[in-house]
Amino acid sequence: MGGDAGPPVTVPAALRMSAHADIVLVGAEDRIVAVLEQSGAAPDAPRLSILHASEQIHTGDPLAQTLRHKRDASMRRALALVADGSADAVVSGGDTGALMALSRQILRCVQRIDRPAICKALQGVAGPFWMLDLGANVDCSPSQLQQFAHMGDALARAVAGLQAPRVALLNIGTEAAKGPRRLHEAARLLDADDRLRYVGYVEGHGLFRDQADVVVTDGFTGNVALKSMEGAAWMAGQLVRRWFDALGLAEREALAPARGQLESLRRELDPQGYNGASFVGLAGVVVKSHGGADTAGFASAIDLAIREVRGDLCGLLVRHFPA
Amino acid sequence: MGGDAGPPVTVPAALRMSAHADIVLVGAEDRIVAVLEQSGAAPDAPRLSILHASEQIHTGDPLAQTLRHKRDASMRRALALVADGSADAVVSGGDTGALMALSRQILRCVQRIDRPAICKALQGVAGPFWMLDLGANVDCSPSQLQQFAHMGDALARAVAGLQAPRVALLNIGTEAAKGPRRLHEAARLLDADDRLRYVGYVEGHGLFRDQADVVVTDGFTGNVALKSMEGAAWMAGQLVRRWFDALGLAEREALAPARGQLESLRRELDPQGYNGASFVGLAGVVVKSHGGADTAGFASAIDLAIREVRGDLCGLLVRHFPA
Q1: Residue among A203, A224, A258 whose CB faces B172 most closely
Q2: Residue A149 has what pLDDT?
Q3: Fewer CB in a 10 Å sphere around the end CB: N or C, chain A?
Q4: What is the per-residue pLDDT for A274?
């Protein structure tokens, strides 16, 4: 039900991805059926089913109320399917704060993990890198940063099959004395941890340059960095557009065959390309889709959830954090 | 003497800008004269003079040594010219940490300002905005953030003639409860400050979208945000290049007349475009040029220093912080 558009985006995305997984659509049955019928799909499509939920969580609902009331909210019912073993993963375009709070309440964290983090794969020049936390935890202790390192390591192994992901801490320089004290202590913990391939500090301008596979930071800094990158990418898109618009008519005509490629560049720079954030550290797979995602975006979030399940993310986490 | 290239970049830049200001070249006289002669300029050009300094500060020199010894370093001698009133501003491509430490030691802060900040004007979609601190102060109290707000306000007035700059705090959401506690206290101070036009929180993806003229943050967060934006801009440049290289030969030929514009886009996305950081809060104008700046970049840093002097930045600061 979540996201700016709700079922008109999520249902066609599920329909598309039902070639690869069994999908339960949780929400208002009448609205879901209406979209399925519009899409020309039989409501009894073999790998799609519907679980009716009479309520919905809206962005702006007070969190305390979301946690205590709204027992029949689609988000809660979907998470309960994972908690009771009827489903392997939840994908939601709903409110980030509510999804995180309900995920913690219903799924709980893997043992010895204090709190889940939000992690996204971003496309660097030589492939993806994973960055966390992107906003779930404003203040983080050095020990939490170490947990994030293991969580990011497990995610990179699970979804991309990396054998020994390079783990770095986001800082404002690469020398040991740079940045705040809490980072120095985190660096000491990571450096002493044999189970991680810690490669030191990475700076913002090194993120895309293949210096690390997993970039660890607190949720405040990570969220600022992510949104600043989105802002710069948006600005770059504006400049590309301005450049194109400033061309002469003859040049624009000559460019016509290439314009499709310019469009794909714009899409690659679009924050929407960052769609699909993993809530990692939970005893279950939860993927947050961007609220403004279109069908392709929501389908890619479903695809990510499938890869996390197939890569046994939760099993890796349990082995990373032995009792 | 500073920057990756030294006099071969700084001297031609000074020569170019000497149409607009009297410029003292401080450093190794023989090397300066050699570049001037190569440039075809008479060493007695009317608005250029040379002050010989026998030493130079190198990146990597221990800061304590820089502060106590190297009494004849070009950077120190240049700052002393401002301290004794013989010059109005210093422009340097040298080491940022050394320049900041020597600036504080020799020029000192304007009364009631605890520490200087590093501030840059970035180009948003509707014009420049000023962001500070970009790395001088890793940890900042709410009161320091309020000082930064006044410093950024003064800079925007001095160099761009803004009448009432909109001041915002960089945060991870726009609601009052978002982000760390220290920001909530800073927001309270700014909101209660009649002399500032405080407009609330701004997020990273709003920076370029004309939501504020002055963006205030601590030096750790600001440096991470700046470098992340540079990283994203670099990545955008890589994508543009890849797109161009993927074109067919006929398309590339058709594009030839437009390629100059593509190049200017690349330059606009280049971190070098961010050249010219102001050290603001000092009793004197100090502009740091990017170490890798070319002649045009260094000349634009000189131009910024001229505008800060003409706009009476230091006078504005003194009036912002009455005794």
Answers
A1: A224
A2: 98
A3: C
A4: 53
| Contact (CB<8Å) A243/B265 | yes
The per-residue pLDDT for range A100-127, each reduced to its tens digit, is 999 999 999 999 999 999 999 998 889 9
Report the predicted TM-score, pTM, of the whole model to 2 decimal places. 0.91
Q: What tens digit of pLDDT does each residue of A47-57 get? A: 999 999 999 99
Alpha-carbon separation of residue A30 from A26, A36, A50 (angstroms):
11, 10, 10
**The token pair that represents B55 in the structure block:** 């030493």
Residues on chain B touching A170 (C-beta within 8 angstroms): 224
Size of interface A-B (CB pairs under 8 A): 171
Q: How many CB atoms lie within 10 A of CB B201?
A: 20
Burial string for A2-30 (b: 16+ CB within 10 Å, else e) reads bbeebbbbbbbbbbbbbeebebbbbbbee
**Cross-chain residue pair B179–A138, CB shorter than 8 Å:** yes
CA distance A214 to A132: 8
Instruction: Give how far A314 is from chain B: nearest CA, Å.
Output: 29
CB contact under 8 A, A246 and B261: yes
Contact at CB, B172 and A261, closer than 8 angstroms: no
CB-nearest to A234 from B205, B219, B224 is: B205
Q: How far is A1 from chain B (nearest CA, A)?
A: 23
Compute the distance between CA of residue A319 and CA of residue B6 in angstroms, rounded to an integer.
Answer: 54
- Helix (H) / strand (E) containing A175: none
Q: Kindly tell me if the per-residue pLDDT of A276 is higher than 90.
A: no
Most confident of A21-30, A289-298, B1-10, B170-179: A21-30
Dihedral sign from CA coordinates of B167, B169, B173, B175:
negative
Give residues with Cβ within 8 angstroms of B245, minimum separation 6: none
Q: Do B224 and A229 touch (CB under 8 A)?
A: no
Name residues of chain B where pLDDT drops below 70: 42-45, 255-274, 323
- φ, ψ (nearest 5 deg) of residue A140: -135, 135
**Residues A236, B205: C-beta atoms closer than 8 Å:** no
Q: CA–CA separation, B204 vs B221, rounded Å?
A: 11
Instruction: Write the CA distances from B265 to A101, A250, A253, A269, integer angstroms.
Output: 43, 20, 20, 15
- Where does chain B show beta strands of DSSP type E? 23-27, 48-52, 89-92, 117-124, 127-132, 166-170, 197-202, 214-216, 277-280, 285-288
Which are the contacts of A36, defined by CB distance < 8 A and separation ≥ 6?
A11, A15, A42, A43, A45, A48
- Does B269 contact A225 at a Cβ distance shorter than 8 Å? no
Q: Is B180 left (phi over 0), alpha (psi -120 to 50) or beta?
A: beta
Distance from CA of B244 to the nearest CA of A (A): 9
The tokens for A14 are: 């599920």
- The span from the CA of A79 to the CA of A74, in Å, is 9
